[in-house]
Prior knowledge:
Blueprint: H1 14-37, H2 42-80, H3 86-98, E1 107-117, H4 127-130, H5 141-153, E2 158-161, E3 164-165, E4 172-175, E5 178-181, E6 184-186, E7 190-195, H6 198-207, H7 209-221, E8 224-235
Antiparallel strand pairs: 1-7, 1-8, 2-3, 2-7, 4-5, 5-6
Helix pairs in contact: 5-6
Amino acid sequence: MRWPTRIPLSRLHPAVVVSGLIFALAGLMFAAAANTSQGTDLRAQRAVELRDLVRQKADHVRVLEQTVTAAQASVDDLTAGRVGDPAAVSARIGIAGLARDAGLTPETGRALTVALDDAPLRAPDDPLWQTMTPDDAIVHQADVQAVVNSLWRGGARALQVMDQRIINTSSIQCVGNTLLLQGRVYSPPFVITAVGPVRKMRASLNADPAVTAYRAWADAVGLGYDVSRQNDATIAGYVGPITMQYADPAAGTPAPQPSQ
């Protein structure tokens, strides 16, 4: 009897070898699945497990949302002064009563606006220009401060320079011909707006020696000085930091009392 000749693996076509390996792997996978499932439907079981997991996570999220809502309500109560230490509640009420005087709330009413501007450039051969220095033709910090102080003395209830509300801790500084105010830099013209009694503020400007000196110099060299009235203007409340870094309350200063 003649045995069939065995074909060496090296002579088998690659496709035949690959197909054989795939079938063998598939058989192993089916056997493993049958052994694991033990007659049950794995897909249905996994769907049930996933549904249970989603339900558990949804319940957890619901609990967290309730916790956040309760915490936010507590924060709102503390902020509004409805609960908490009586001394802290009293302090908050006192602070709220001082918000307007501190410049933290908007102010609306008739207003006076003052615009200060540098002098225009002149021809190099202009005799007046030849006798001046660059500092003579620009608006200085003292000029802006003089107008601001004069408007305060005239009864201004709220005041802003450019687009920023001015409060007791505001600092006006000039760097060259630019204005540095509360961390922001502005170029001329510098516009100062004050809400308050227009006639008294205008009279205060006219009577102020520093403003009068600026106006005289402005007429001589061409600096800008313009005053205009607004019947209805709104100055926004101050939104910057109000904590003093280099000052302490004077000894014996009483704490703010709640407004009645």
